[in-house]
Amino acid sequence: MNPIIKWASVHKIDITKKFDSKTTMINGDTDATDFVSKLLDDVSKSSAYKYYRFRSNTTEVHNIINSLSDNEWEDSATRISNRLYEAEEKAQKQVENLTDLRRGGLLQIYLENDNATLYVITKVDYDDYLGESLKKESGLPWEKRTQKVAIIEFNEEDHIVKVRDTNSTISTYWWDSFLELVELNSSQKNTKSAFMEIDNLLTRKVKKKSKIDYWNIRNSVLCYFRNNEGFSITGLIENTLLHYTPDNSSIDIKSLSEDLLNLPEKKNFDSQFDISISHIKGRIKKNIPLRENLELRFNGEIENLKDIIKAGEDSEGRKFIKIFSDTGYEEFKSSNNDSATENSQSDGARKE
């Protein structure tokens, strides 16, 4: 991102104190300008966003950014900051016995980039540190920067707003109370589309080459959807592929990761959203025919799948699968052959 920054400012947001209306402008060749440039670079590289639009053309933030002018920037930025302060006050009252909202600085940046006009609103960490004078000071950390991001793109029809949150789910007060947005894709639609398209990609790219790698990766995807409240495409890749060693060396994990990373844009679902697991229960189930009137059915994710189901071939060339199962063992054990399940593969024993 090589933006032309027209205006930039920062406000301190700390709801434990009275709202500070002071606007700190960021301009010139300063460390603060470098900080903003690094932040914009981080924002542009992120792949996890959910798309929204403004609830109406009369909402406050929409009206403010639509009527920006050189001599009104400080006032406009202060009004937007005050709105966030009020939204956080309200949100804190709703969760006061559970958690405390993190204080931070609200950076607002108006810029032009690649023939597009953007308004970036981001809440960044505001931390205490020991200064060179050995006195406690407060400021913005150089490395760990963003908590929440909203990127508003101006166009003639409707402003599209990309929202990201470092939390697993996007805070409601950020997109609803503060920005007054409506989602373009619901959590239900996103969950169904994402799971279906990911499974389709694995079927095309992995299953045709290696069925065992397909089942292992698909099972990890199921675990991710089941065990997380929020989805991000980068989080999915980190959880399913980052440390995965394929059984078949022809499976290119790097290429597969890139395909997954590009999937939200190609298939029109958000790269960050709340997971609605109830809307993919039907798609989770998979059946594998074993022989006539016998099949293996997956009803959901299985912890340590690779250690539970094993495939083999006995001395007579008969192929079998072995499933480690105490329950299954009790159902099928032979009274005169209790020890045979582990030592003899010729009977196709199945034990979990």
Q: Could you explain the architecture of this structure?
A:
- It is a single chain.
- By secondary structure, the protein is an alpha+beta fold.
- It has two domains: 180 residues, no CATH class; 95 residues, no CATH class.
- Helix content is 37%, strand content 25%.
- It contains twelve helices and 16 strands.
- The strands form five sheets. Strands 2-1-4-5-8-9-3-10 form an eight-stranded antiparallel β-sheet.
- Helix 5 runs antiparallel to helix 6 and helix 5 runs antiparallel to helix 8.
- The chain is elongated, with a radius of gyration of 27 Å.
Backbone CA Rg: 27 Å
List the total number of helices. 12
Strand tally is 16
Strand order of the largest sheet: 2-1-4-5-8-9-3-10
- Give the topology string: H per helix, E per strand: EEHEHHEEEEEEHEHHEHHEHEEHEEHH
Q: So what's the overall shape?
A: elongated
Regarding quaternary structure, what we see is single chain
SS-derived structural category: alpha+beta
Strand content: 25-35%
Give the mean pLDDT.
Answer: 86
For the biggest sheet, the summary is: 8 strands, antiparallel
Q: Into which percent range does the helicity of residues fall?
A: 25-40%
**Spans where pLDDT lies below 50 across 5 or more residues:** 344-352
How far apart, in Å, are the first and last alpha carbons? Answer: 53 Å
What's the number of structural domains?
2
